[in-house]
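dumping these here so i dont lose them again. two proteins, back to back, each one seq then structure tokens. dont judge the mess
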Amino acid sequence: MGLLSRLFGFKHSDSSADTKVPANYPDEYKQILKFSDSLNSILGKDRFIARSDYDGLVKEYSSLPPFIDTLKKSQMLKTYVESNNLDMTVIERFYETYRKLADITNVPDFIKKHNDEFVQRHLKGEKKYLDDILKECDPNIMLDDEQREVVLSNEDYTLVIAGAGAGKTTTVAAKVRYLVEKQGVNPEQILVISFTNKAVNELKERINHNLKINCPISTFHSIGNSIMNINEDGKKRIVEGGYMFTIINRYLKETVLRDSELVDKLILFFGSYFTAPYEGKDLAEYFQFISRTEFSTIKSNVQEYIQQVIDHKTKEVKTLNNEILRSQEEVNIANFLYLNQIDYEYEPFYQYQILDSNKPYTPDFVIRQGDKVTYIEHFGITQDGTNNLYSPEDIEKYKKRINDKILLHRKHKTDLIYTFSKYNDGTDYLVHLKEELIARGYELNKRPSEEVYQKIVNSEETKYIVRLVNLICNFISNFKTQGYKEEHFDIFKSKIQNVRTRLFLDICRTCYLEYQKCLIQDNCTDFEDMINESAELIRKKKIAKERLGYKYIIVDEYQDISRQRYNLIKELSSLCDAKIVAVGDDWQSIYAFSGSILPLFTHFCEEFGYGQELKITRTYRNAQELINIAGSFVQRNSEQIQKSLISNKSIENPIIIQTYCDKKDKKKEGTPKGGIYYYLGEAVNSSIQAILEQNEKEGKREVASILLIGRYGFDARNLCNSEDFNYDERSKTIYSAKFGKRVKLSFLTAHSSKGLSADNVIIINAKDEMFGFPSQIEDDPVLHLVVSHDDSYNYAEERRLFYVALTRTKNRVFIITPENRPSEFIKELLIEKKLYPNVVLNGNLNLESKRKIKNVCPICGYPMQRRMNKNYGLELWMCMNDQEICGFMTNDTRGGDLAIKKCDWCKDGYLIIKPGSNGKEPILGCTNYKSDKDKTGCNRMMSRDYYLKWIDDSIGNEDPSVGKYEYLRPAKVELESVRIPEMTTPKTILVRKEEKTKTVNTTTTQLHHIEKDGFEVVCDASGNILTDMELLKKIRHWRFEKAKEIKKPAYIILSNASLVDLATRQPVTREELLSITGIGEKKLELYGDEIIKIIIEHSRQ
């Protein structure tokens, strides 16, 4: 019996006509039999059955199941069957079959069986065709069974999950050819989309160039532009990120002054919310936050802070222009006082000579207005005495210190205002401060907003405006990428209570509207609007189906899909009734910062309503040993789709970790320039040497091709601080001074390397630091509204990025890491040996190292910052903890827990760290010490043992040095007159971070002639020629012959600069050729194959 006979219990006709049934059957029963004929017709065809093939049946016969339900509920079904002489089995089986077909979440078992049989039948019947399907691309390519199943399958929505090196591009090319040649699909009805020009060019190479199939292959941006042009009479100019920066920067510096309300909000944001506060509970993360944050005030940043002090060591006058506080909350208080024109001084000496832990007591602020003088103490705990960053013991110590300070001020009858970080009534501490000031009769005279804002704009310190513009541009770009519109600003605000975020949204909304207005005025569009508007045009049926007419939409690198791109392909599919084939790898999803949303990939079928997921698990790039390590590494995050990749390749020691010295005190005498980067260069050279030796062992005589991968672009320049490497600024290429033409180096960031493969890979930045790998840079919290934040696992996206870097190699991957600050990823690879076998360590490594702050307080462990202390006239390391817990300060960290104290033998001396005699441990000695025989200075000294007995941690004791001799007499040093410098408009805006340094070895050029032609050839920093002069002669000769052949001047074919670039960088693929000066798509098609042939033949000689 056939499938339908088994389903419904009767034989069906093999003809296309409906099954003949008695005329007296009820209409409903006739419909059931008709349903069976229609389903049989679908199942009887030799094709893959997609849901759309039977979805019409489900809709057409949707009234039958409710009819049967009604009979069942009324217990009339049996009577209905018997009275009409029907077959109950047929009805029951129909009911079950329909239920399976209507279930959108599952493919019916009989449909799945049919499709499985179809695939297996065609795997055998079309074996020869599938064997040769890509021979025009590469005769050695042979699709595996998983790839062939993708080619043969034809569901409406198909997700192909492919591992690194599994042949995603190969599979897409084969799928296109099969659709054209076997399914009869017009090539113009197959749209292939990828995200970057690099990926598009590779697909064009395979499909358009090799297979000669002229289907459209494009980026999302190009598709959006094409759709926009269909619907518009005139083309809009497409602008990039620089346009947005210019518009918003100009608006915030100039036009915004017309909007007083927004100016007030900007000043409030700059004054109280510019730096996002740390809101977590992890102490280590908090230490990282405060160690890298500069708590400077508006007064300082607009250059109105100026303080002159006498340096206790040199006795010279120093001028301080930078006011740095201990915490952001203190900065907010200082800014509040400044903006309300209340004169303040930060951490002044208390007016009475009172000690706090053996040093002068310094309240947080003193303010003066008229004859009023008030001290302000701000406490970093809540009003009810909590702070999740402090232990219970610390909290008790903190509360005692608060009480001691309050009693101290009462005792001496000095006015004190104290504030807490948070209040029980939820009111902000600045509101409480304002109330206290008003109650004491202080006048709060708000500085004119325009005046303050203009000072901020005109200040040479571009910190505020530039950082805010960058943040707003980032937010708006991702806001649009998620498909959001203006009303979403209100939606965000309605769900958020955070004051800083709400304030930012108000500012950002105004900038967004200004930017959109300028786009319209200038007849421009950006990439984000182009895609959003294209999807909207399709959704509103403003684009006719006939104008597009796609039957298949194939999306490469689908793991990078954003909401707006998803909307576009879904609307395209809906308009054209096109099937979607999405190919990608969730393990390589690394673009959240630019809008990608991983759940759109991992929940593919739910997003589209239904679909099919297929896996390609055989990798052709990596050895099995390497892919086992990399796969285990990325799958530590259980949220990733689990898969086991298979490879026929095998290799010993697939991952080699090479260490280098990263401690300055270990430097050898006479180390060449470059410092630590000299040792980094040594480590890279050791890895290159190992690659060359392995190549020689395997009989490989050609030039070794090596890809250097960094986490950031400036990793390439950092490496070239070593004399062994030279950096070409123009092409961003690295050249080896040591190995010369024996190696061909290329450099890419881990992000840029995705989709590429290399013979050998060296990862050069596996260190534990802010710009290391993993990167420890944190996004501003406001970006979490528009950027997908994957917190499923620690460093989730960085882990996937590291996986990408590991899997670029066809052979081994070398990882360069410092001995004392190895990356967390490196430690994991080495410590968990069972999970990661075959990882080799070359050199010494401190696996016990933990992420450290460079300079930490020896008392409480908090970070310290070094700055000139105006009270002491000394450069001091100052603990950033609240002084209620720890007020440690020292002039020399080698003194350990010895802290600067007030000298008790003289009026104006301080006990500071000094070296002990004869190499003994450091001691404390007075700043007024003199080594003369007459002992005219203060000779107070104490050893550490004495110090530990002498110190007193209490507050409130009177200074015992009162009335004693004063060595630093004010009359001897005249302070210069204090004048606030005039504001000057900055000539340039410094946005960055990594500035060029003279230590980087960069390439130069020299003029050389070949006959009459002059060529600016590339040389290293020492003047050695890097350009292959013999190859240059060959390419020049080819150009000469080609010019004669086509009867055009030689420069029309390629310029001299292009020839030098070819002879220096020696590209051997069409994709590499596109990176050469003067070579675009047209010249690639005209001359690409000939040029590559010349270079390859030359390299083999």
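---- next one ----
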Amino acid sequence: MPKRKDLKKILVIGAGPIIIGQACEFDYSGTQACKALKEEGYVVILINSNPATIMTDPNIADKTYIEPITTEILEKIISKEKPSAILPTMGGQTALNMAIQLEKKGILKKHKVELIGANSRAISNAEDREKFRKNMKDIGIDLPKSKIVTSIKEAKKALKKVGLPAIIRPSFTLGGSGAGIAYRKKDYNKIVANGLSESPKNQVLIEECLEGWKEFEMEVVRDKNDNCIIICSIENVDPMGIHTGDSITVAPALTLTDKEYQVMRNASIACLRKIGVETGGSNVQFAINPKNGKMVIIEMNPRVSRSSALASKATGFPIAKIATKLAIGYTLDELNNDITGSTPASFEPTIDYVVTKIPRFTFEKFPNTEAVLGTSMKSVGEAMAIGRNFKESLQKALLSLETDLNGLDRIKNFSKNKINKELEKNSPNKILVIAEAFRHKINLNKIYSKTKIDRWFLEQIKEIVDAENILIKYGLPTNPNEMNYMKSIGFSDKKISELTKKNIEYVKNTREKLGVFSIYKKIDTCAAEFKSVTPYMYSTYQRDTVGTSICESEPTKKKKIIILGGGPNRIGQGIEFDYCCCQASYALKEAGYETIMVNCNPETVSTDYDTSDRLYFEPLIEEYVINIIKKEQSNGNLLGIIAQFGGQTPIKLAKVLDQNHLPILGTQYSSIDLAEDRERFKNLLSEENFKQAESGIAKSKDEAVKITRSLGFPVIIRPSYVLGGRAMEIIHNRQQLNKYIDEAVKVSGSSPLLIDKFLNDAMEVDVDAISDGDEVFVAGIMQHIEEAGVHSGDSACSVPPYSLKKKIIDEIESQTTRLALALNIVGLINIQFAIKNDEIYVLEVNPRASRTVPFISKAIGIPVAKIAARIMAGEKIEDFNLKKRNTNIFAIKEAVFPFNKFPDVDILLGPEMKSTGEVMGIDENFGLSFAKSQIAAGNSLPTRGLTFISLQDKHKNEGINLAKKLVELNFTLCGTAGTADIIKKNGIKCKKVNKVSGGSPHIVDILNAKKIALVINTGGGKRAYRVQDSTSLRRATLINKVPYCTNMSTAYACLEGIKSLKSKKMDVKAIQNIFY
């Protein structure tokens, strides 16, 4: 069938902010969808609230609305743009839920808009647990024993049928939100209550526990003619009981028999047909009982899923692109396979290598949370590696995580007894514990009984440990075959160096003298049956049976530039850096250079095979990066390497590049080191007469104590060479210092710590700028809405500044220019300032792309990263017409946090970053812009109701004005005794409410009774009962989804937002109509 000609405009719904369970995989799929639709001549309308994504760039869709994803906003866009259809299958659970709500509210019917890709019936059939269960029974596919419930009362009855342990799965959620395994009745009731709260339909599935069963996923694509193909089978190394997003996974499935695979394949296709997914991609999950081979279906996603990105990168088959084209009428046999250029998309991909994905966790950001995995997803990113065998693939994936692992590293100080206990826990480092168990001679069968990880995988891990023992016993291999074997099962030079106790340079030189080098193979979707025309590559040391193998890299003779990516997503280094890498590639391709991307993140647009001219899917580790550079230098002209766009990952490689005399484009290593080294940077600021807080440099605990005593509390400690404020903290007393300092010194290694006098009550400002070495363009000045002390990645901020004096703005621009030139920056620079009593203090400088570059680009309508990339390649600022447009708009960036995934964590913010993503509110009115940012972040501001106020003593007088404004806005007030007394003394009604420590009824009781609309709490204190009071209050606001302000400046911004919501009409405008 040809494409549909009755459709003219298509609205794509994006996924919104990056959150655990819904990350940048959906930027990848959404970007592919928009590009595919434009390629076919459709007018593409996009809604997405996330400014950090590639898909919200103005050239991806024809009209881009960076707006909250709600039915009200969607109806405004539909009314304005009049699309023929909506594609809801590329934006994760957010888009699916919106599609169902639009249908239920009659908005689709009212505006004559249809859903393509998946209709509302198919979505409901898959997402509604009851309907899904009935549909699977109808076609004879087994399911676990289960019961649907919509209340605690029903849940108690269901328990009699299902029994304990039981798995609780809420409907219409993502990333296992609200899910859990209950082993005791007490836990059961608690998890069910949470699951009902998380489910938009107040519906949960109570299911028999399948812990220990093997788990598999099938990525399936179907067209209108009922052609169905399996793109990829994926096997979880971890058994059931751990969310698939948190499990180590491999593709293809490695432990299925051919018969089991065929049964699962047929069941997947039958499932799609019954659910009614007529066109596009779906993900189907199964479990197999290892004792008897019984197979049950767990669930299916009638959309592109997080595993679809992994499957696309694993096979080279662009699922989102093909699914989009099927949604507009094409059939699989009418579409070409881009990788081969000669086969139709109806050919099922076949792969002759092994792909391993390992999730990346950041439990260190949430110290009160036990690092234990379950059915609710906790990982914030993932790394993927490709090898010719599982061992090679696994060890490359461990390196790719950037957690200082060199392979299956030892866990020191673990006794045999401790290992046996740890094997029974679902910990993030379980694979390391298993390796340690083999080192302690624990029997494989015993390890299997404790972990339920398939014996085949355990044997593979044992073989790696056995190879380690050979290296420890016999030392560095001295013949090519032995060396090549160790490299072919994934041992890095660094790991071999560690095991043989030889210098890494000596290992590298010996390997090269023995003639053992990596070769590169292409991803071809067809196990080498057809020639691949797309240079999408991975390295391997595995040779064929006669000991040789052909390298398929074939570097060209072109002028080329290598871009080093950001590696796996983590808190502090997310999609924003992938955005910058993609923009660099696009800009340099336009300028006539061949672009080469190196990255190991399967979720991102940068690892799409058509983003750059050439793609190496490799760990961002010295050995692998240097090998790629040398391979590309073997032909053509390598102009240089871009190391400043991928965050801290490539910045850490800049020293190695410099030492190897490899060309770095833009800012050189000497300048990077000057800005990153806290001691040298402090001296530079003094020499150039910039103001800075009183400070000292400490290289030991004793020095830190001495400096702190001299400065006086509070102080803020900043380690060197870290991202996302890792181990950065405000210290208020000696006890806190003693407890903390060991971790800070450990994080910064041998680098010194900068200890600053903390600037109380200061305002922070972020600045992004471009420098060509002679001239500086200040792209944007972002005023933080939170007071100083909150990490810039966690603070809401405004462009332009909403309350800074012009003379302060002018001085910030001047200081930015002076500092960029003093550091010899060529490319991007980010500077953080603090302003106190109209004095400007420099806090720190990042000589690279910052996480705010995408936001600034969309706030000012200038592609900052693109221009910076061109300047790094030799062009000048004067070559670009960089005039800021006077648009009279405010753009507000707001952070989004994962606190709902970590139930024991205090939600109070500080200098260490905790957010996973961000949203943007944009409007001509500051209040509406702020209100939009809150709606998009899931913190919709109330326009009436009861406000709870509890203020520190220093804020209480200021709180009187706050109370007056709230009353003017028709809010009623309640507060803790001290705050309520002050407010009442000034003639304002305010009811007294107990703190938690004061006994019931207290503030948490009132919050749980859903009687509070807004909380303003700047109180706390360091005494245990006060800390507990504040923590309980903050957790209750999170559970009850009540907007919460922790400082006065945020409270005033909230009031501005509320005032605007009550007095002004909220409108929507495409960014193309604002700037172009």
